[in-house]
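Hi team,

Filling in the usual template for the complex we talked about on Friday. All components are listed, including any nucleic acid strands or ligand strings, so the model treats them as one assembly.

SUBMITTER: L.P.
PURPOSE: interface mapping
COMPONENTS: two
RESIDUES: 364
SEQUENCES:
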Amino acid sequence: MQAMGQSVQSDNDRDLTGYDWTGMTGGIRAAFSLPGLVMVCSFMGFGALIHDVGFPLLAGVATIVLIWALPGQVLFVTMWQSGVALPLIAAAVSLTAVRLLPMTIGVLAQVRLKQASRVPEFLLGHFTAVTVWVLSLTSLHDVPAQRQLPWLVGLGTALMTTMMLVVPLGYYLADSLPPALAAAMVFFTPAFFIMSLLSGAIWRFDYAAIVLGCVLLPVARYFAPDFDLLIAGLGGGTLAFICLRPRRKGLLK
Amino acid sequence: MTGVALILAAMIPAGFIATYFWRAVAVVAVTRIDPESDVLLWVRAVSTALVAALVMRMIIAPSDVLATIATEHRFAAVAIGIGAFYATSRSTQIATFATVIALAVLHLVLG
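RESULT (copied from the run log):
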């Protein structure tokens, strides 16, 4: 089964030996799209959130460059502010980031040139997160093979730069907006997370993992508040996988 | 160390390395790993459940600003958003906006 983005490419195109970096400009333009706008709103919400919990703005902006995956950023900020031990923060952040492994493999398998240098792949790996992944599935049809990786790097660069401007905006707006509007802004972040999970769900165990993660969280929180996310994530995910392990494969590329 | 410097020093291992590790593994493994192997599917499930749990925590244990909105309105807004997701043949974008608008409307109309 071929991915959408590969449909017009012949296998020979994948044997080119170098990337065409002029492809970056197309990706930069693609940042100004509806998925980009949702991301802007979510990061404004993140800016409002860090203001709300009292996390320094500068460190909040640093999470964009260093982590570049909003669930991990929210986890780091909220756990740091509740004084959770660093190894536990690292474990929780890392567990949310595991989602990036299959996502990055999917993106790279679609755009990498087999004979080219592998260094740019490590760069694209850092930019890969949900919005880049979504746009890689929907927008690469007409981009020639040697421009696809640069296209995504351009997209990632433009999105990252934009978010670094948007987070301070949300941070300062949180102060001046009426509380109800500020709350709505903060709510963009969890709303975007849950819709992204639903949109990425393929198998029944994906849905089971979403439901079990939600249901186990209050229980885990009651018995072990510091470990609530780890318990709900590990427990819910493992349970979903054991009970509903998929038999039909070949659905991820 | 000042507050920000301390946070940055903590963020390198607990944020950057904790996250980039998996991206680097993906780059190294893309030539030989099967993204649908059992280990990766389990990993996918754990990661999905963890993000879902994070959403749940933001709803039931909200930050100060979010706490100005009633818990049942936070739940109702998500339910409406999920309805919008399926009503629009799975549009993440529309559903995200619908959730937030529903939250604001519920709060303003029902207090």
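MY TAKE: Residues 1-8 of chain A have pLDDT under 50 and may be disordered. Chain A has twelve helices and no strands.

Thanks, L.
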